[in-house]
């Protein structure tokens, strides 16, 4: 058997998307069909879904040999699912997109054509976000602007993971050992020729978001701790600032006590300073803790994900048998 070269891999992380999979698949096929002579593979990564997503995917894979799937032993998270897809992709270009149809499959053509003009990364920038809460839009807006200010690398504002990357970038990502995969940051960090196209982010087709507030917070903190030391420095600045203020207060207290000799019990000032110091100390210890816990997981070096079943090796098995 000859080893056919794959032009395009499409990676789809799936967590409880049983009602989106068929529609998503057919839209992707229609979209890729418009690309002439494009050898593709579609990689579904089932991130421990509790519904029938996996059955749906396996059924589709029986009719289409370009459809690959990786089934995780449990839920490992969106970024890890994408990373597993990237690690196992064979395409010259790799598209990353959500499987809830928020990232419109017809944009794949635009991403691919743009990349073909000689770009290693083309990310899709959201012109409009349909059907998302004001809270999400607002926090995302503030967060990405903050992240941009406090990190050295240029993480694009208003862009999710929907993008195309070249094999060159894929190979570098595979070498990155960190456990917290903040992919949009890592891809920005890699460099090369990057550009963007604009698109309208759609409403989720069926179901509801799988990103709870706590998952979102964790993800947001991953972005900051992997790319910025600013919070640690901020803790130091805060320490200095509070020390200076305390020193001035101390002088004032001594002045009152010995020069004016007019002093009261001072309960208010004591309780205020205790509360203030307590707050500052907890914040700074918390910041340090965030970094240490991430160092811990990087030292443990557990595997990023565990595969329960996959059809990735099917072809190779066939090849060795032939
Ligand atoms: N997802 C995943 N693992 C998770 C959570 C989400 O693989 O633990 C997938 C999900 O199926 C979808 C994509 O990641 O394809 C984006 O998730 P979601 O739509 O819930 O996030 P949102 O669009 O609301 O940010
Ligand atoms: Mg979504």
Which small-molecule species are bound to the chains here? uridine-5'-diphosphate, magnesium ion
Query: How many domains?
Result: 2
Q: Give the number of helices.
A: 11
Distance between the termini: 8 Å
Largest sheet entry: 8 strands, mixed
Overall outline: elongated
* % residues in beta strands: 15-25%
- What is the string of SSEs from the N terminus onward? EHEHEHEHEHEHHEHHHEH
Under CATH, the homologous superfamily of the largest domain reads Spore Coat Polysaccharide Biosynthesis Protein SpsA, Chain A
Helical content (DSSP H or I, runs of 4+): 40-55%
What name does the CATH topology of the largest domain carry? Spore Coat Polysaccharide Biosynthesis Protein SpsA, Chain A
Please name the CATH architecture of the largest domain.
Alpha-Beta Complex
Strand order of the largest sheet: 7-5-6-4-1-2-3-8
Computed Rg: 25 Å
Residue stretches low in confidence (pLDDT < 50, at least 5 long) are none
Mean pLDDT: 85
Record field, number of beta strands: 8
CATH secondary-structure class of the largest domain:
Alpha Beta
Estimated structural class: alpha/beta
What report would you give on this structure?
It is a single chain. This protein has 322 residues and is of the alpha/beta class. The protein folds into 2 domains: 8-213 and 305-321, Spore Coat Polysaccharide Biosynthesis Protein SpsA, Chain A; 230-300. It is 51% helix and 16% strand. It has helices at residues 21-33, 53-63, 78-87, 107-116, 134-150, 167-174, 183-190, 213-227, 230-260, 267-300, 314-321, and strands spanning 8-14, 40-46, 67-72, 93-96, 121-129, 159-166, 194-201, 307-310. An 8-stranded mixed sheet has the order 7-5-6-4-1-2-3-8, sandwiched between helices. Helix 9 runs antiparallel to helix 10. The longest helix has 34 residues, at 267-300. The chain is elongated. The model has no long low-confidence stretch (mean pLDDT 85). Uridine-5'-diphosphate (UDP) is lined by residues 13-15, 17, 47, 75, 77-78, 81, 98-100, 102, 209-211.
């Amino acid at each position: 058997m000859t080893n056919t070269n794959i032009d395009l891999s499409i990676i789809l992380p799936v967590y409880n998307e049983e009602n989106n999979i068929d529609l998503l698949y057919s839209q992707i096929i229609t979209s890729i069909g418009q690309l002439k002579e494009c050898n593709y593979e579609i990689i579904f990564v089932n991130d421990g879904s509790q519904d029938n997503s996996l059955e749906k995917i396996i059924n589709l894979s029986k009719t289409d040999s370009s459809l690959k799937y990786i089934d995780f032993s449990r839920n490992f998270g969106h970024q890890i699912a994408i990373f597993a897809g990237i690690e196992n992709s064979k395409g010259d270009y790799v598209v990353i997109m959500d499987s809830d149809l928020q990232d419109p499959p017809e944009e794949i053509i635009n991403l691919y054509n743009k990349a073909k003009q000689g770009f290693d990364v083309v990310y899709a920038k959201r012109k409009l976000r349909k059907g998302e809460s004001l809270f999400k839009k607002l926090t995302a807006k503030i967060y990405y602007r903050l992240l941009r200010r406090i990190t050295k690398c240029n993480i694009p504002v208003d862009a999710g993971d929907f993008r195309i990357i070249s094999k060159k970038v894929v190979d570098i990502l595979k070498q990155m050992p960190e456990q917290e995969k903040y992919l949009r940051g890592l891809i920005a960090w890699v460099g090369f020729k990057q550009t963007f196209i604009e698109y309208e982010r759609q409403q989720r087709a069926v179901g509801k978001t799988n990103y709870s507030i706590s998952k979102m917070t964790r993800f947001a903190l991953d972005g900051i701790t992997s790319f910025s030391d600013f919070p640690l420095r901020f803790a130091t600045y805060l320490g200095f600032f509070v020390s200076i203020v305390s020193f001035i207060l101390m002088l004032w207290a001594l002045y009152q006590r010995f020069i004016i000799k007019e002093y009261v019990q001072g309960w208010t000032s004591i309780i205020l300073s205790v509360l203030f110091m307590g707050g500052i100390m907890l914040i700074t210890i918390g910041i340090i803790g965030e970094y240490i816990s991430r160092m811990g997981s990087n030292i443990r070096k557990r595997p990023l994900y565990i595969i329960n079943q996959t059809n990735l090796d099917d072809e190779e098995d066939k090849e060795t048998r032939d």
